[in-house]
Amino acid sequence: GSVLDQSLESLLHRLRGLCDNMEPETFLDHEMVFLLQGQQASPFVLRARRSMDKSGMPWHLRYLGQPEIGDKNRHALVRNCVDIATSDNLTDFLVEMGFRMDHEFVAKGHVFRKGIMKIVVYKIFRILMPGNTESIEPLSLSYLVELNVVAPAGQDVVSDDMRNFAEQLKPLVHLEKIDPKRLM
After folding, report:
1. Any domain includes 184
2. pLDDT tens string 117-146
């Protein structure tokens, strides 16, 4: 979902009340999306992300699998995810492996937790000069809101918990399951 800039404080206040009793984390991350075009029609996509506000943190390499074709009544999108902490030469390694950088952006926001759920509220910033994360501008006048859970396969009850939590955020934000094929 998304929330307009002027409604952000109301949403953050609601999340502080609904989530675990701890101060939310803030983050400022630089993400680069790399593609490897192979024999298949769609390229292989990897995401490299690093913290800009916490020095010494490792790069993270993330692979997000294709959404599972399953029950249409399931309230959440389900897909495999692999997230690995790496060394500082990650981007050079990916280029040497044949990947090319497709795009990059800066994400700035807040992370809340409710049990095993993670709620992320963030704004995406366009990088005006490639590679220069100091020169950025907001992409829109709103913040993205994501609710995600890392769970073992077959834990469909988790999607019901996610739907129940999302209902508590209405009318500030309407969280929906996104069909990635619709975005292409």
Report:
1. no
2. 999 999 999 999 988 999 999 999 999 999
Q: Identify whether 18 is part of a domain.
A: yes
Does residue 170 lie in a domain region?
A: yes
What is the residue range of 42's domain? 2-176
Contact of 148 with 158, CB cutoff 8 Å: no
CATH number, domain with residue 104: 2.40.320.10
Would the pTM of this model clear 0.70, i.e. be above it?
Answer: yes
Q: Please check whether residue 62 lies inside any domain of the structure.
A: yes
Angle 144-102-48 (CA atoms, 0-180°, nearest 5)? 65
Give residue-wise pLDDT tens across range 77-119. Answer: 777 889 999 999 999 999 999 999 999 999 999 999 999 999 9
In the block, tokens 């609904």 appear at: 18
35-42's contacts with Cβ under 8 Å and 24+ in sequence apart are: 35/99, 35/100, 35/102, 36/97, 36/98, 36/99, 36/100
Of the chain, the percentage scoring pLDDT greater than 70 comes to 91
What's the number of domains the chain is made of? 1
Buried b (16+ CB within 10 A) or exposed e, 140-178: eebbbbebebebeeeeeebbebbeebbeebeebbebeee
* CA gap 25, 12 in Å, rounded: 12
